[in-house]
Amino acid sequence: MIDNESPYAFSISDHDNKKFEQETPVRLFHNRILFVRQGSGVLTIDDFEFSIAANQIFLMATDQILHIAAGSVISGYELNFDEFFWEKAPASASNCKSVLFDNAAVNQLLPLGTSDYQEIEPMFTALWAEEQKPDYINKADVLAAYLKIMMIKIANVTAALKEGFDGYEYQQYRQFYDLISKDFMVSHEVDYYAALLNISARKLTTLCKRYSGKGAKDLINRQLMMEAKRFLQFSSNPVKDIAYQLRFSTPEQFSHFFKKNASQSPQHYRSRLVKTDM
What we know:
Largest sheet: 5 strands, antiparallel
Number of strands: 9
Pfam families: HTH_18
Protein name: AraC-type DNA-binding protein
Shape: globular
CATH topology of the largest domain: Jelly Rolls
Strand order of the largest sheet: 1-8-3-6-9
GO molecular function: DNA-binding transcription factor activity; sequence-specific DNA binding
Strand content: 15-25%
Domain HTH araC/xylS-type: 174-272
Number of helices: 12
Number of domains: 2
CATH superfamily of the largest domain: Regulatory protein AraC
Structural class: alpha+beta
Order of helices and strands: EEEEEEEEHHEHHHHHHHHHH
CATH architecture of the largest domain: Sandwich
Keywords: DNA-binding, Transcription, Transcription regulation
């Protein structure tokens, strides 16, 4: 099962003593932050189980599998955003997001001390209140600014920002991540990026798995999917033109790639967005 797409690639929900009943595991389309004020039960991310309790933050990245056990109860906020929405946030926060979500498996559960909880909880409340307001010009930019502040605070709480950027090999991984953000339409191949970094494809894949939990090819595909969704949502270009823009050999190859990664065709993805905006 796939979690629901948001027309703004951003959503926040306030759970008030929500009880989960026979939930089906979902593959996340978006990055997700779950802020738990009070709660009980079990939450599984990929193959790892976590006990739900008060004063917690769970960080989940796109494509992770989430399952909340039947009978679990949560009071708190659930915040979802995708890579395209994150681009609205000021660049000064990008390191925080990268450290927290590129390696989400390391930062999956963040217990909060009293002072940290008291500082972060009002931010979620303010962000939720802002999202509830009727749409207005630049609303997405305001929400992104709130998200930036929240991400910096969470990174400071975990000290992930300081620990995550130590070491030459991590810098190589970050260089690769920057390269695929710029050159994804030049090449889809791991060998291309490994050559630019003067390391072997196997070494690059090892670094990616160490720091993100995903292989180099998986990260390239994730970037391609983000750009494909951007084209489908914000352009009127035919699917076949988008396929060639993204350097796929044929429209059929692109459609197969998209369906494999999104469990739906490009046409269906676009039609869902059109219906949502009506």
